[in-house]
Amino acid sequence: MTRRTDWGDVASSGTGSDGGDVCTGSGASSSSRAEEGAPRSPEEQARAICLRLLTGTPRPRKQLADTLRKRGIPDAAAEEVLSRFEGVGLIDDAAFADAWVESRHHSRGLAPRALARELRTKGVDSALIDEAVGQLDPEQEEQTARELVERKLRATRGLDREKRIRRLAGMLARKGYAEGLALRVVRSALEEEGEDPELLEYHLPDG
Question: Residue 100, class by beta-carbon neighbours within 10 Å (0-12 exposed, 13-18 middle, 19+ buried)?
Fold first, then answer.
């Protein structure tokens, strides 16, 4: 699902796909200025900050822009560097969103609603968010919900039926699962454990 980009290769080499120098932008002259202790330009500072943040970890454009602003980089210099990085593939919000969804769904069991909320806080465009979370298979989403409930079941044994239902359904709700799916999964898990279906019907009616 994740789009492949050349994050590592470009960052480690310091060059863009067109052979331009991403790290310094001005070749040996920048190295000479640095060796002489001359102040770096805002663009050079922005490139250094972005490369450090992107080393081994893709980040969305807005997060980088916010960091540059906090570091006092002028907007014009930040925009130039961010656009350059985006052009050579070091910044790719679509790939970031895909990777975030895949990772957070498998590691934390988060559902599309929670994943979309997280990506919005990181400044990813709504269209890219919709595309990324839309790639989650509904069957896989339900299977993940079942696995989450199964892991939680043992910790709820000994509680009364209503409290168990609230605990299990609440856990799924916090991870972004829709109420209908959450209740259906909880009911199925309790029935498989041996709960009376008629009693569960009272607490978890169909439809």
Answer: buried
Across 8-22, 34-48, 160-174, which has the greatest mean pLDDT? 160-174
Which pLDDT band holds residue 204 (cuts at 50, 70, 90)? low
Average pLDDT (131-142) is: 92
Q: Tokens 């990181």 map to which residue?
A: 122
Per-residue confidence at 6, pLDDT binned at 50, 70, 90?
Answer: very low
Rounded CA-CA distance 75/50 in Å is: 14
Given the structure tokens 């961010």, which residue do they identify? 82
Distance in angstroms (rounded) separating the CA atoms of residues 34 and 175 = 48
Please measure the distance between the N-terminal and C-terminal CA atoms of the chain and give it in whole angstroms: 33
Is 111 a residue whose pLDDT tops 70? yes
